[in-house]
Design brief:
alpha+beta, eight-stranded mixed sheet, 3 helices, 8 strands, globular, binds zinc ion
Length: 135
């Protein structure tokens, strides 16, 4: 793994949270993006080499809606950048971790992503991500 790429924070209202985090960081987000397959609307803030991703559910069956129902707003996942997501998935699966998907999925911000089940990671939801090759 290369570095912490971003930290994902589950929020109830993206507009309100954009304002809060703009004030904290003293700069606006650089993009908003909906990931329809995950039922989320995301907002990204860049801080030097790392990012903060705010996530708002777009419907009640969204994993973010379920997370907020159970735990309330707050840190949802930590994303680590990897060089080769397929190789890392294979390696971690061989180590006994449970992957939430068998193939990398399209994530926000031009990434291929895969999540590790928190049951096998001390309750920390871990996202592996790899920048998609720019065509
Ligand atoms: Zn993420």
């Amino acid at each position: 793994m290369l570095k912490i790429e971003h930290i994902g924070i589950a929020v109830k209202n993206l507009e309100i949270s954009n304002e809060i985090f703009s004030k904290i960081f003293n700069k606006p987000h650089y993009k908003e993006e909906e990931v329809v397959s995950e039922g989320v609307k995301t907002s990204f803030f860049q801080l030097a080499d790392s990012k903060i991703e705010l996530l708002e559910a777009t419907h009640t069956e969204s994993p973010i809606a379920k997370f907020i129902d159970k735990k309330g707003e707050g840190i949802h996942h930590i994303a680590f950048e990897v060089e080769d997501i397929w190789a890392e998935m294979k390696r971690l699966e061989a180590e006994g971790f449970t992957l939430l998907n068998t193939e990398p999925k399209n994530g926000a911000d031009n990434k291929l992503v895969c999540f590790l089940h928190p049951k096998t990671t001390n309750s920390v939801l871990i996202e592996l991500c790899q920048e998609k090759n720019k065509a």
